Amino acid sequence: MKVGLLFGSFNPIHVGHLLLANYMATNTDLNTVWFVVSPQNPFKQSNTLLHEFDRLHMVSLAIGDNPDLGVSNIEFQMPKPSYTIDTLTYLQEKYPSYEFVLIMGEDNLAGFPKWKNYESILNYHRVYVYPRSGSATTDLTTRLPNVTFVKAPVLDISATFIRDCIRQGKSVRYMLPDEVAAYIKVHKLYL
């Protein structure tokens, strides 16, 4: 079983995340893609970060019954902030017969050598990199072992933009799955 891991705060999950994950699961050699909800990203500080269980629930609502996608709360019981290498090590121990592939945006690739034990990630795992608009071009996809560029379609949309729209009372229709939009509205999130 080859599992793609898409890490993020998903604050909130939006159609761009879903489009990317579904493409990776159905147009590459991956069997499935799991959204790994991160309680706290060591590179991001945010006072608008919802509780991790709200974000996890919204991801579950968003993927619904799609058999190609899954969601993981593996980092909830790990020390915070969570580091990708620690999560990958834990997952590999828990699922020894699975092959885990890290999925990351091109914008994160330039900073990848700053990640904790990034060499170990590259030694034991493949990394699939997808394009991001406005990213500086880098030759790291050709220089780093086990890194593959995947020309996946991406939407130029961000959770920050969506949160700003919600705070300003603007429509977020078509940016979020209906179930996620309804959950945010009912619980008065991001106001």
TrEMBL record:
One GO term under biological process is: NAD+ biosynthetic process
SUPFAM superfamilies hit by this protein: Nucleotidylyl transferase
**A GO term, aspect molecular function:** ATP binding
Q: Note the Pfam families from the entry.
A: CTP_transf_like (PF01467)
Alphabetical list of InterPro entries matching this protein: Cyt_trans-like (IPR004821), NadD/NMNAT (IPR005248), Rossmann-like_a/b/a_fold (IPR014729)
Q: Which reaction does it catalyse?
A: nicotinate beta-D-ribonucleotide + ATP + H(+) = deamido-NAD(+) + diphosphate
Query: What keywords would UniProt list here?
Result: ATP-binding, NAD, Nucleotide-binding, Nucleotidyltransferase, Pyridine nucleotide biosynthesis, Transferase
Residue intervals passing through the bilayer: none
This entry's Enzyme Commission designation comes to 2.7.7.18
Q: Which pathway does the UniProt entry assign to this protein?
A: Cofactor biosynthesis; NAD(+) biosynthesis; deamido-NAD(+) from nicotinate D-ribonucleotide: step 1/1
> Which residue ranges does the record assign to the Cytidyltransferase-like domain?
6-163
- Source organism superkingdom: Bacteria
What PANTHER family does the record tag this protein with? Answer: NICOTINATE-NUCLEOTIDE ADENYLYLTRANSFERASE-RELATED, PHOSPHOPANTETHEINE ADENYLYLTRANSFERASE
The family this protein is said to belong to: Belongs to the NadD family.
Role noted for this protein: Catalyzes the reversible adenylation of nicotinate mononucleotide (NaMN) to nicotinic acid adenine dinucleotide (NaAD).
Q: What HAMAP family does its record include?
A: NaMN_adenylyltr
Protein name, UniProt field: Probable nicotinate-nucleotide adenylyltransferase
Gene name of the record:
nadD
